[in-house]
Amino acid sequence: MTGTTADPIRSLEGVVSAAALELGGTPVAGARLERPPRRDFGDFSSNAPMLLAPIVREPPREVAERLGQRVADALGPELERVEVAGPGFLNLFLADAWFREALGAAAAAEDAYGRLPATGLRHLVEFVSANPTGPITVASGRHAAWGDSLCRILEAAGHHVQREYYVNDEGSQVLRFGESIRARARGQEPPDDGYRGAYVADLADRLGAGANASAAELAEAGVELMVEEICASLERFRVRFDRFFREHELHREGAIESALALLRERGHVYEHEDAVWLRTTELGDDKDRVLRRSDGEYTYFAADIAYHLDKADRGFDRLVDLWGADHHGYVGRVQAAWRALGHDPDALELLIMQLVNLVERGQRVQMSKRQGEIVTLDDLIDDIGVDAARFFMLQRSHDTTLDLDLALAREQSQDNPVYYVQYAHARIASILRKAGDARVREALSADLSARGDALNTSERDLVKRVLELPAEIAIAAERRAPHRLTTYAHDVAQDFSAFYRDSRVVGAAEDGDDEDFRLTLAVQAKRVIARSLDLLGVEAPERM
RNA sequence: GCGCCCGUAGCUCAGUGGAUAGAGCGCUGCCCUCCGGAGGCAGAAGUCGCAGGUUCGAAUCCUGCCGGGCGCGCCA
User: Fold this and answer.
1) End-to-end CA distance of chain A, in Å?
2) A258-288, pLDDT tens digit by residue?
3) Which bases of strand B have any atom within 7 Å of the beta carbon of a protein residue?
4) Rounded to an integer, what distance in angstroms lies between the CA atom of residue A122 and that of residue A127?
5) Is the CB of A290 under 7 A from strand B?
6) Widest CA span of chain A, in angstroms?
7) Is residue A171 within 8 Å of A300, Cβ to Cβ?
8) Which of A449, A536, A430, A502 has its CA nearest to residue A107?
9) Least C-beta-crowded within 10 Å: which of A125, A263, A296, A323?
10) Is A456 near strand B, with its CB below 7 A from some atom of it?
């Protein structure tokens, strides 16, 4: 049955699908097992009969009856009973034997549990990419947490992942940055459109900038220092990149010219009023875009096309870009350019990250700022810590504005979801310490299926929850939805609390209960919480 | 004006075709002879923005409208 795999729910789904195939003569697309909304609808519920009904031309409930019979035959004693319900659901009530075997299988997988089979697909995820003209802000912090967590989840889902930060070290912004440093070095105010943060004067000091250094030199040196600082802030936030890709490389290697030549060859380029244009309107954009300005300079857009071409040439199956909300007007033209280059539109995903509002008791707040007018990621971490910052930033989907409640995030109590989850983990650790290593190992090597006592509701609920991890990871990866893991981790913690309330673990044997089963379940709940938190980049403490 | 995103409980949000729509916060009430009370249980609270449509079935898909956010440079 399911004992040889680390995804017992999937195996069960396979049994139902096989039965549906026999009945319908053809595979049923979209059939799945889901957790029913109410406990009296069983442990798992299949929508297969409703999908099968049109194929076999029978009422869904009749199909469900026949499917139920076959599933019952296939599962034998692991199934308690099936019920047909509602519009044609097949509800499965599983026997305790199934729960024991399933838990045993999950526990036997140890650290591999929740790690999905390799897909061979190579992903390049580009995120943060904040201009290297200032420290990392809270908004960029959300990009960092989210992008990094997505990468962790993609890896768990079996994909190969490369993390990349695109450094805009060219162009007018950078020059203005250099001019601002130079002004400070001369004891002057930066230009009106320059960078006015306190860190600029600090950079001027650290560079030992003489009054006659050029803005371009100062810009280059300033960018290098900023990249180092950004890197350090991100490292502190547990975010590491495989590569910082400099825009400068594209200019130096003639990559922009060759991208432009390729576009020209493919017939998408024209000249107008001394500028070179890309005809993006033919590919879904609302206006054509300039690639090279009339002054001969390439636009940021041209460099970005060259960058994406470079990524594609490196042989990735999937490019994921995470951009700020202020860049969403840019999506159409980059997609158009991507298609102009002849690439599969689905291979490039452009995701937009919405803004972060810092909130305290319902009011927008101004934090005390280390760097003048900018609220930096470091300021936030100093205030609420890395774990709370990451967890809170990951609780929401990327396309919704985030209200981050600082008061709640600071709170070290059960009201704070990150503490609630970490507390559950620490509490299980404490229980297992009390049991002792040797006793825990003994429990893990016991054959749970040989036991006979009835499981209680909260034990069964926790087993089911723990078994959901592989599917949760798969869905989070597919939908680019790290926030699902925050919900899941909280659910596990909650189900553990119910289990713990109802069932004594250490000393269960004295009451005649199955202590091996309970210890194994506690171990597995702890692993699953730790795994979920790891995918979020949040620590799972043994003690608090 | 055009484009994209959002509109679900008092608040912040989950829920990408299925059953009586969920969680956290807040609110009300209850539970500490028990492995961590940094805990648990129960309750009140919803015209899923509005109106049509598709479907056996719609918070979910389509169309229109209303409200909010963001974007619409030979800036990056």
Assistant:
1) 40
2) 999 999 999 999 999 999 999 998 888 888 9
3) 2-6, 11-16, 18-26, 34-36, 38-41, 56-57, 69-76
4) 16
5) yes
6) 89
7) yes
8) A449
9) A296
10) no
Confirm if A132 and A170 have CB atoms less than 8 A apart.
no
Give how far Cα A321 sits from Cα of A135, A166, A324, A401, Å.
21, 10, 10, 18
Residue A370 has pLDDT above 70, yes or no: no
CA distances to A149, A172, A465 from A488, rounded to whole Å, are 14, 45, 9
A82, β-bridge pairs: A92
Closest CA to A320 of A347, A284, A340: A347
User: What is the residue-averaged pLDDT of chain A?
Assistant: 91
Tally of residues, chain A: 544
Which of the nucleotides lies closest to A133 (Cα–C1')? Answer: B76
- Helices of type H across A138-246: 138-156, 172-185, 198-206, 215-236
pLDDT grade for A31, boundaries at 50, 70 and 90? confident
Domains and CATH numbers, chain A: 8-94 (3.30.1360.70), 417-536 (1.10.730.10)
Q: Quick one: tokens of A275?
A: 């500028």
Q: What angle do CA A30, A32, A34 make, to 5 degrees?
A: 135
Q: Which amino acid is at A221?
A: A
**Amino acid identity at A191:** P
Residues 6+ apart with CB under 8 A from A472: A484, A485, A488, A532
